[in-house]
Amino acid sequence: MSLWKVNVDNLDKLFVVWVFLFQIILIAHFAARKPFFEGYTVKYGWVVYALCIPAAIISILLLQGGKNWSFWLGGFLFVVFAAFGYWVDYVAQIPFRQPVRVSVLVPYVFLYLSTVMFYWWPLGLLSRPLWFVYAVLFVIATVLNITSH
Predict the structure, then answer these.
(1) What is the tens place of the pLDDT at every residue in 11-22?
(2) What's the first-to-final CA gap in the chain, in angstroms?
(3) pLDDT exceeding 90 applies to what percent of the chain?
(4) Per-residue pLDDT, 37
(5) How far apart (Å, rounded) are the C-alpha atoms in residues 28 and 81?
(6) Cα–Cα distance for residue pair 55/50, rounded to 1 Å
(7) Predicted model pTM
(8) Of the candidates 117, 52, 47, the residue with the CA atom closest to the CA atom of residue 82
(9) CA-CA distance, 100 to 94, in Å (whole number)?
């Protein structure tokens, strides 16, 4: 029995490594955010947004390599999310989490979830076991994200 549903090439493997690395970084970020808010999040939270640079590069490689749109869309969505998030958090410094500002929170959450979903769903085309593992990581990241605010 194979881990993979289809024959995978190096671009598929790159996608898999990237999406798991991305999710693990988010988990670490959300876990560190609450206890180290002032020393870590305020100073280094922008690094998560900067991950859009390798995400964009990988999406370009996937697009040029002829991969289905579902594999490369997540990286481009992440660029949009990161640009919006960076602008809101660091440039305009709009407090939208506490108190809740719906006009900012809704597009922020939509773009974040769109990114994560387009990293998660295509895994099912490659490997059902990896899809389930990513689902567990997504739940962990979501719980940590919600509880760290």
Answers:
(1) 999 999 999 999
(2) 43
(3) 72
(4) 65
(5) 19
(6) 9
(7) 0.89
(8) 52
(9) 11
What the block records as the tokens of 42 is 């305020």
The secondary structure of the chain, three-state, reads CCCCCCCCCHHHHHHHHHHHHHHHHHHHHHHHHCCCHHHHHHHHCHHHHHCHHHHHHHHHHHHHCCCCHHHHHHHHHHHHHHHHHHHHHHHCCCCCCCCCCHHHHHHHHHHHHHHHHHHHCCHHHHCHHHHHHHHHHHHHHHHHHHHCC
Q: Name the token pair of 99.
A: 């108190």
On the 0-12 / 13-18 / 19+ scale of CB atoms within 10 A, 66 is exposed
Q: Which residue has the tokens 């989490």?
A: 97
Distance of CA 113 to the CA centre of its chain: 8
- Match 């940590």 to its residue by tokens: 144
pLDDT digits (tens, 9 = 90+) for 32-62: 887 776 677 778 888 999 999 999 999 999 9
Q: The tokens 């509880």 sit on which residue?
A: 147
Closest CA to 122 of 50, 1, 2, 14: 14
